[in-house]
Amino acid sequence: MSAPIREDTFMHVIRALAAGTATAGLIAGGLIGATGAHADSYKQASVHTIFSDEFWLCGKNQYHQTVCTPLIESPNDWKRVYGWWWTGKVEFTGRQYHSDGSVSVRYRTCDSAKHQHDQFFDCYAI
């Protein structure tokens, strides 16, 4: 036969569960709040480049942190960069690989407040 649970132990478990539930609610609320902000002031990039084989973007994200994407291959003229939300100026760096083994590097500054449509802004980095 197991020992009965003491009332103070039982209440300690209940309080711990309640605190965990409250914390999860705060985290979920923060994520939902951030998602709502995307529609107004934060945009994802839609990059137009015909000369770069790969590129990366750097700038301020929705948390006002300076971040850079990993290297992104760009086999097409337009490449949407999903899941990266930008505000302000975004720096584009692109590389083009030539058949002789040389590499051209291109730089461009794009503005997330211009050329907007839906959740994206156009970055013309030709």
Structure explained in plain terms:
The chain has 126 residues and is α+β, with helices and mostly antiparallel strands. 28% of the residues lie in helices and 44% in strands. The protein has one helix at residues 7-41; strands at residues 43-48, 54-61, 66-68, 72-73, 78-97, 103-111, 116-117, 120-124. Strands 1, 2, 3, 4, 5, 6, 7 and 8 form an 8-stranded mixed β-sheet that branches. The protein starts with 6 loop residues before the first helix and ends with a strand.
What quaternary form is this?
Answer: single chain
Number of helical stretches of at least 4 residues: 1
**Residue runs with pLDDT of under 50 for 5 or more positions:** 17-34
Shape: elongated
Biggest sheet details = 8 strands, mixed
- N-C termini distance: 77 Å
Q: Percent helix among the residues?
A: 25-40%
Summarize the structure.
The chain has about 130 residues and is of the alpha+beta class. Helix content is about 30%, strand content about 45%. The radius of gyration is 23 Å and the shape is elongated.
What's the arrangement of secondary structure elements?
Elements: H1 7-41, E1 43-48, E2 54-61, E3 66-68, E4 72-73, E5 78-97, E6 103-111, E7 116-117, E8 120-124
Parallel strand pairs: 1-8
Antiparallel strand pairs: 1-5, 2-3, 2-4, 2-5, 5-6, 7-8
What would the keywords be for this entry?
about 130 residues; 1 helix; alpha+beta; eight-stranded mixed sheet
